[in-house]
Amino acid sequence: MMVTQKLVLVGGGHAHLSVLRALAKQRPAGIDVVLITTSKHQNYSGMLPGWVAGHYTQAQCRIDLAPLVQAAGVRLVLDQVIGMDAARRCVGLAHGPHIEYDVVSLDIGSETDTSWLETLGDKLLPVKPLDNFFASWPRILAAATAKKGFKLVVVGGGAAGVELALAAQQAFTHAGVDGSVDLVASESGLLPGHARGVQTRVQRFAERAGVTLHFARGVGSEAGVLLADGQLVQADQVIAATGARPAVWLALSKLGLDDRGYILVDKYHRSVSHPNVFAAGDVCARTDVAMSRSGVHAVHAGPVLAQNLLAALGGGAMRPYVPKRRSLYLLACGSRYAVASWGRWSAEGQWVWRWKDWIDRRFMQRFSVNPQPDTASLLEKTP
Ligand SMILES: Cc1cc2nc3c(=O)[nH]c(=O)nc-3n(C[C@H](O)[C@H](O)[C@H](O)COP(=O)(O)OP(=O)(O)OC[C@H]3O[C@@H](n4cnc5c(N)ncnc54)[C@H](O)[C@@H]3O)c2cc1C
Asked: Ligand 1, residues 9, 39, 45: which to mutate, most atoms within 8 A of Cβ?
């Protein structure tokens, strides 16, 4: 009699979208697959700033997991994993019984590190979880429209912070808000890790758009953000797009983690401590190569992860994920204008925004189409 093995996917993140797609196309028999994720939609962060700026509806920025899950023959559990025991091969849920696995894959992203800003209390809105951000932004815009001199402060000089500050400025202009947007980046300036040309272009654009820039570390206070140079940036609302941090429960999972708490994986995205555990996207740290935490890698590692999970369950060869030396980033600047960054090369214009818009829509369409299961290969793959 054939033994059924259980594959558990934790998180409906970008890499797992590819796993679902692969399972829908070619599903070996003898595998029971469960997806545990917090929402039936996967939000696409690449289009979030465009939604804030008013270019997209919320529906255009999220993928409905139901058709994908159905086509892949996967059981969907809408819950939050709050613990894991890699030695006992199980994950614990917030609202249900624990689930055991033969092989597990984690694609749960990262959290926004708000530790320096907590004193802000109700004024603080972290960009993640994105569901919460989507629910909160319309309220912020309404409050800004109702109050004269509304002060919005965005903290974080990386791509997310810059794009959100520029998008908010665009939304304020469009709604006729009498208010201001400040962006607090650290002393290392805007977009660390990008070429000087990119930083200059974005900074110039932000200044022209009317966003006030601060280059000093900030901590939260009841009145706003207190900068390292002593200046207080007053705020009615603060959006935190500060650095990423991993989920705290990973610390007790018994998995091999790096010194920041991310899951250590090899080139196959397999845990270095537990060969039946895989991880991709923001939650993992590669031991062999430095890889930035960005959607680009979560997306591109997806098909490789799919192949390797099936190899781990049914035998077959694993494939390494080889990150490209340079990734293309298209940074939205609020209005339908964007800056392109690729290694030392940069460019800007409305055409860059149209390019980004085309790539983003095409990505969404790829996962919105219901992939039909390939029944022939389902039968052929029976071990
Ligand atoms: C505003 C903004 C703009 C960005 N723009 C870009 C860009 O243009 N290009 C780029 O490359 N990167 C961009 N990024 C970074 C990008 O969003 C992340 O690197 C990417 O989302 C990581 O993908 P992931 O698959 O690891 O996780 P995520 O996309 O965060 O997905 C994680 C999934 O797991 C679920 N989940 C989380 N915790 C649990 C749990 N405990 N139990 C069950 N399910 C759970 C979540 O609900 C979610 O569905 C941007 C980020 C932000 C905030």
From this structure: 45
Stretch 288-308: mean pLDDT? 94
- pTM equals 0.92
DSSP secondary structure of 103-118: EEEE----EE--TTTG
User: With 90 as the cut, is the pLDDT of residue 373 above it?
Assistant: no
For residue 76 and ligand 1, the question of a CB distance below 6 A is answered with: no
pLDDT tops 80 at residue 381 = no
- Ligand 1 mean position, distance from CA 178 (Å): 32
148 C-alpha vs ligand 1 centroid, how far in Å? 34
5-111+244-326+357-377 fold: FAD/NAD(P)-binding domain (3.50.50)
**In angstroms, what is the span from residue 68 Cα to ligand 1's centroid?**
18
Instruction: Report which DSSP code applies to 274.
Output: -
Give start-end residues of each CATH 3.50.50.60 domain in the chain.
5-111+244-326+357-377, 112-240
CA distance 43 to 20: 16
CATH fold for domain 112-240: FAD/NAD(P)-binding domain (3.50.50)
Residue 379 has pLDDT above 70, yes or no: no
Q: Is 282 in the pocket of ligand 1 (CB under 6 A)?
A: yes
pLDDT score of 35: 98
Distance CA(371)–CA(22), nearest Å, equals: 9
Classified as helix, coil or strand, 75 is strand
pLDDT value of position 102: 97
